[in-house]
Amino acid sequence: MDAEIVLSADRIVARYDGIEALHGVSLSVKRGQIVALLGANGAGKSTTLRTLSGLVAASSGNVRFLGEDITKVPAHRLPHRGLVHVPEGRRIFGDMTIKENLDLGSFTLADDVERRRRLEHVFELFPILARRQNGDARNLSGGEQQMLAIGRALMAAPKVLLLDEPSMGLAPQLIKEVMNIVQRLNREGVTILLVEQNSKVALKFADYGYVLKAGRIVLEGPGSDLASNEAVISAYLGGVAA
Q1: Which of 194, 213, 210, 192 is nearest to 202 (CA)?
Q2: Can you say whether the dihedral through the CA atoms of 162, 156, 93, 141 is positive or negative?
Q3: What pLDDT sits at residue 25?
Q4: pTM confidence score
Q5: Would the N or C end of the chain have less CB density within 10 A of its end CB?
Q6: Rounded Cα–Cα distance for residues 123 and 223 (Å)
Q7: Partners of residue 213 on adjacent β-strands
Q8: For 125, phi and psi rounded to 5 degrees?
């Protein structure tokens, strides 16, 4: 039996200041998958994630999550349902401590025992955050800030995690470390939709991939197929095959 589709977009159109940025994007993410959304700068990758998570209103089309239409659900209500977005640029609060940043991810959770369990899981994944939990987040390196952003998202116990450019600006060793964490989370049961400009990194891990160009899906297929297709990589992703 095919795996259940847990998140889908059906012909979504989105606009910024009246200018259409997405032109009928359709995609689906099955339970347990890592799905990559690829494309060059300006292709519409981040806009797609922001529309899925409710930060940008879809002008038409619909978004479904766990069988429910969430197109009109306010963005702040979706993390409680299990759809959590880690935006591009990390968006941590530099004047707050690392632990305070993490606590924000579960601020509506009344169960202190569960909150502590989640915090311990984050600290197991990212020991550097545990060691520096009482320090200001502004003092973290770029890679550590990315770990904090992911850790904060995990405090909401996501069923589906939307990750926007987690490797941006990181050194190769840190990219490897972050992507290893992404794989571990997936093995632990978190379904992941990953936006990446670095197609070689993304397709190494992705079960399935979509390629965006100018706000439209122009190609899709298993990650291994896209990774080995030099013509695809050259034409749409501006690189070389993985």
Answers
A1: 194
A2: negative
A3: 98
A4: 0.91
A5: N
A6: 31
A7: 216
A8: -70, -40
Report the C-alpha gap between 200 and 216 in whole angstroms.
21
**Residue 125: how many CB atoms within 10 A of its CB?**
18
Please state at what angle helix 112-125 crosses helix 142-154, rounded to 10 degrees.
150
Please, which residues have CB within 8 angstroms of residue 10's CB and are 6 or more apart in sequence?
Answer: 26, 61, 62, 63, 64
Highest mean pLDDT among 106-115, 146-155, 162-171: 146-155
Residue with structure tokens 């197109």? 71
Domain boundaries, the chain: 5-88+158-237
Angle at 95 between CA 94 and CA 98, to 5 degrees: 65
Count CA within 13 A, CB hemisphere, residue 224.
1
**Could you tell me which residues come within 8 angstroms of residue 60 by beta carbon, excluding any fewer than 6 positions away?**
11, 12, 13
Residue range 219-241, pLDDT digits in tens = 999 999 998 887 777 766 665 44
CA distance 52 to 191: 14
Spatial distance between the Cα atoms of 241 and 189, rounded to a whole number of angstroms: 29
